[in-house]
């Protein structure tokens, strides 16, 4: 989905970068409190990132609703969520 927003037509989704950027975003912005609260904060950050991503695709990509439910839509969303949770976990260890 990101490649359509940027106008790249190769169809390549760079999954390690999706995970790494969501991890870094969560690791930077989650407050280092107790581990369970940091995990929840990371999970909520991942959910908000996925909701914003879905809204941007729906609004800005013509015919974007056709992509919902397909693997190129679901896999980056799962990686965003896991990356944010992992970032929250490592933020609690700082």
Poorly predicted tracts of residues:
none
End-to-end distance, in Å?
Answer: 33 Å
What percentage of the residues does DSSP assign to strands (E)? under 5%
Shape: elongated
Topology, element by element:
Blueprint lengths: L1 H5 L8 H15 L5 H26 L10 H22 L2
Helix pairs in contact: 2-4, 3-4
Report on the architecture of this protein:
- With 94 residues, this protein is mainly α.
- The protein has one domain (2-92).
- The protein is 72% helix and 0% strand.
- It has 4 helices and no strands.
- Helix 2 (15-29) packs parallel to helix 4.
Could you name the key traits of this structure?
94 residues; mainly alpha; 72% helix
Give me a quick take on this structure.
The chain has helices at residues 2-6, 15-29, 35-60, 71-92. By secondary structure, it is mainly alpha-helical. The mean pLDDT is 80.
């Amino acid at each position: 989905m990101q490649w359509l927003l940027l106008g790249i037509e190769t169809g390549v989704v760079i999954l390690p970068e999706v995970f790494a950027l969501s991890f870094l975003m969560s690791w930077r912005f989650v407050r280092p409190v107790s581990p369970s609260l940091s995990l929840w904060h990371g999970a909520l950050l991942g959910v908000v990132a996925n909701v914003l991503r879905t809204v941007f695709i729906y609004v800005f990509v013509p015919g974007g609703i056709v992509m919902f439910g397909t693997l190129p839509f679901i896999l980056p969303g799962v990686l965003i969520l896991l990356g944010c949770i992992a970032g929250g976990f490592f933020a609690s260890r700082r």
